[in-house]
Amino acid sequence: MCLAIPSKIIKIENNMGTIDVDGVKRETSLLLLEDAKVGDYVIVHAGFALHKIDESVARETLQLLKEAAALVDKENADG
Amino acid sequence: MTIKHIEEYRDPEISRAIVDRIKKVSRRKVRLMEVCGTHTMSIFRSGIRALLPETISFLSGPGCPVCVTDQKEIDAFIGLARVDDVIVTTFGDLMRVPGTDSSLQKERANGMDIRIVYSTFDALEIARKNPDKKVVFLGVGFETTAPTIAASIISAKEAKLDNFFVFSAHKIVPPALDALMQTKDVKIDGFILPGHVSVIIGTKAYLPFFGKYKIPCVVAGFEPSDILQPISILVEQIESGNPELINGYPRAVTFDGNGKAQKIMEDVFETVDVVWRGIGVIPKSGLKIRKRFSSFDAEKMIEFSAPESKDPKGCACGEILTGLKIPPECPLYKKLCTPIDPVGPCMVSSEGTCAAYYRYHNG
Ligand code: SF4
Fold first, then answer.
1. CA-CA-CA-CA torsion for B151, B153, B159, B162, nearest 10 degrees?
2. Are strands B190-193 and B30-36 parallel, antiparallel or unpaired?
């Protein structure tokens, strides 16, 4: 039941957002979010946006994952 | 660089590196429980089981909402659908769950008005268009779903819709973790905690549980590296004997969770003791509609009769939901019970463990 895919808000009107899910437009309620803006990526479940993805945290996570991967590669190379 | 929050976490290089790390660290045999049905599916689909060393095995937990719904409730849903002026609305995955003598799908084939909706807004719309009918939404789900249903009740109240009702069979996750730890013979070394339930409740909601049992717990997302990284953290914690509660999905989950959703849920629902299939009564684990909103409560406002409930004979869903068995250990698995002709709910729901095994597991 959980649609894990984050979607981008492309329009907001009266607490309803239009999101882009892989090129398909869908309506989602923004009633459960504090401050959604156009351009935000949100996690949507059963027609409601539940969370706004924190872009800076996401970048940090990716950076950490990449660094960890590089470290493992280096360890492997060093034997 | 724009990030789309999907592809980046499917990078095979990153996955491979995490798997290497796990292989290096893992010595002991460990049993990790993925509580959430969506994790069960993602772990199978992404082929993670095959990549990991044999020391690691997975148990699927009670996190498939349809699967843990008590047979009595399924029968009540069917009873409601049989009431003359009722239109039942539901998410699709409930349709085929076998009740004691029927299913919603069979009832629909028999002419009952049962409609699959994508969100509760669709159910509200149906209520608006059918003022002479009672429109009931079947509320099944965890903390991810419950606030959306609560919001629909508040919307119905604001719009003065008096023919919209909810049957709330919602459940919450932390009390179930506690119940699992108390179940006899259950052996779990670490928990992969549900990502989207945690979006709502925040990691803080697990603090009492973690404080009590000091068992490794990591919240995980759903893409391959979102799952592998938490597994790696769990294995390291188990090997080093240092259990921690970690947020392994920080782009979506915060310590406090979604306060607005928590408040709406709290306004509309109260926690009560309810039965989970296979587990029994878990104290304060169910969400029922508060008195203040009782005019929207289908259980209070609509009279219906349901058949006397009996659990499906021979079905081991209960043991599967607590990690005591895996599907191939059920005598009916693949023989009498298949996704086309399911005996128990674990074979029906796309998140059900039996359905996941049937689809992805050879043997
Ligand atoms: S295989 Fe079918 S009968 Fe056996 S536990 Fe799973 S759902 Fe129940």
1. 170
2. parallel
Q: Which of B212, B197, B285 is nearest to B245 (CA)?
A: B212
Tell me the C-alpha distance between B287 and B48, whole Å. 34
The closest alpha carbon to B178, from B35, B294, B59, B64, belongs to B35
Confidence bin at B4 (pLDDT 50/70/90):
low
Distance CA B262, CA B264 (A): 6
Chain A: closest CA distance from residue B79 (Å): 24
Residue B6: what pLDDT? Answer: 66
Residue B230, ligand 1, Cβ within 6 A: no
What is the side-by-side strand order in the sheet with B164-168? B114-116, B86-90, B134-139, B164-168
- Interatomic CA distance for residues B193 and B234, integer angstroms: 11
Burial class of residue B162 in the structure, from the number of CB atoms within 10 Å of its CB (0-12 exposed, 13-18 middle, 19+ buried): middle
CATH assignment of B66-172+257-301, given 3.40.50.11810, 3.40.50.11740, 3.40.50.300, 3.80.30.20?
3.40.50.11740
Q: Does A16 touch chain B (CB under 8 A)?
A: no
B148/A48 Cβ within 8 A? yes
Is the pLDDT reported for residue B344 higher than 70?
A: yes
Quickly state the pLDDT bin for A79 (edges 50, 70, 90): low
The residue ranges of DSSP E strands in chain B, in sequence order, are 30-36, 56-63, 86-90, 114-116, 134-139, 164-168, 170-171, 190-193, 217-219, 245-247, 269-276, 280-289
Which residue is listed with tokens 């990526």?
A: A41
Q: Helix B120-129 and helix B146-158: axis angle, to 10°? A: 30
Predicted confidence (pLDDT) per residue in B263-321, tens digit = 999 999 999 999 999 889 999 999 999 999 999 999 999 999 998 899 888 999 989 98
Q: What is the DSSP letter of B184?
A: T
The partner residue sitting opposite A34, judged by closest CB among B20, B118, B260, is B260
Do residues B15 and B228 make contact, with C-beta atoms less than 8 angstroms apart?
A: yes
Interchain proximity A65–B250, CB inside 8 Å: no
The tens digit of pLDDT for each residue in A21-65 reads 778 888 899 999 988 899 998 988 889 999 998 877 777 777 777
Domain extents for chain B?
Answer: 66-172+257-301
Cα dihedral B142→B148→B151→B157 (10° resolution): -90
3-class SS at B247? Answer: strand
